[in-house]
């Protein structure tokens, strides 16, 4: 069994190429697909056959609170998972999420097996009674709540979860069930993905409650060049996010190639 790794990016082709070269150098046995949410021109210029174009307006406009992973999930399921029974999981992460451990797929799979997870994420927990901005925004959205009531197998059909939108691990069954829902109301991915999968009957797991895999994954602040290189040199770190300094990618690629 194997994992398909989906890299969400909007960068120009040269940067995407460099990112793929780094991923393949660090984890030569892993399989990657590019989910490009930038311009069609940039998408066409990405030099890989394993790519899908996301033309969802929520990924480009000012309404950041509506960004959705649904189109990526649907394209990935129909293009890759339906025809390949060996794929047992999907790991979706953003372009500024660096992978430093070649064994990360097995470490994630081991954690999923130990916890019975259908979804794993950073800060993947219930959000009732919190001031998390996306919970506050969506807690009374009648379209979302009606949707959850119509599909939920839980006693509390309007319970809302949240997690970081970067670094989501989904089992094959969770991905299939997500796609099988068909119609989805507008909702931010950090709220919708864990909430929907919870109500479909899957266990959603906060990685930090069980492992140190995400100890260097966070929303902010960004990791600087020196921090990234120090973590890489020290060893033991699986992931670093967010990293915006392209010099770090280039330096890691040179190190991996040497």
Strand content: 15-25%
Shape: globular
| Low-pLDDT segments | none
Helix content: 25-40%
Level-2 CATH architecture: Alpha-Beta Complex
Tally of separate helices: 10
Cα-atom radius of gyration: 18 Å
Instruction: Give a count of the beta strands, DSSP E runs of length 2 or more.
Output: 11
Lateral strand order in the biggest sheet: 3-2-1-4-9-6-10
Question: Sheet with the most strands?
Answer: 7 strands, mixed
Please report the first level of CATH classification, the CATH class: Alpha Beta
Instruction: Quote the CATH topology.
Output: Spore Coat Polysaccharide Biosynthesis Protein SpsA, Chain A
Summarize model confidence as the mean pLDDT.
95
The run of helices and strands is EHEHEHEEHEEHHEEHHEHEH
- Tally of separate domains: 1
The assigned structural class equals alpha/beta
Distance between the termini: 30 Å
């Amino acid at each position: 069994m194997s994992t398909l790794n989906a890299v969400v990016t909007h960068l120009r082709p040269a940067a995407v190429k460099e990112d793929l070269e780094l991923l393949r150098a660090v984890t030569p046995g892993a399989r990657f697909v590019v989910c490009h949410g930038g311009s069609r021109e940039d998408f066409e210029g990405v030099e890989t056959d394993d790519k899908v174009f996301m033309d969802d307006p929520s990924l480009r406009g000012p309404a950041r609170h509506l960004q959705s992973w649904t189109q990526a999930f649907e394209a990935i399921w129909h293009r890759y998972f339906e025809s390949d029974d060996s794929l047992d999981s999907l790991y979706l992460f953003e372009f500024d999420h660096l992978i430093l451990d070649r064994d990360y797929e097995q470490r994630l799979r081991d954690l999923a097996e130990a916890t019975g997870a259908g979804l794993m994420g950073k800060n993947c927990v219930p959000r009732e009674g919190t001031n998390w901005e996306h919970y506050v925004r969506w807690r009374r959205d009648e379209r979302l709540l009606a949707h959850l009531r119509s599909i939920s197998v839980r006693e509390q059909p309007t319970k809302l979860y949240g997690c970081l939108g970067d670094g989501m691990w989904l089992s094959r069954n969770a991905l299939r069930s997500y796609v099988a829902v068909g119609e989805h109301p507008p909702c931010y991915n950090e709220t919708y993905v864990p909430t929907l999968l919870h109500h479909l009957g899957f266990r959603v797991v906060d990685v930090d409650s069980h492992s140190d895999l995400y100890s260097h994954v966070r929303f902010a602040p960004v990791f600087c060049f020196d921090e990234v290189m120090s973590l890489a040199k020290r060893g033991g770190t699986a992931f670093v996010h967010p990293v915006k300094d392209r010099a770090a990618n280039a330096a890691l690629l040179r190190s991996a190639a040497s």
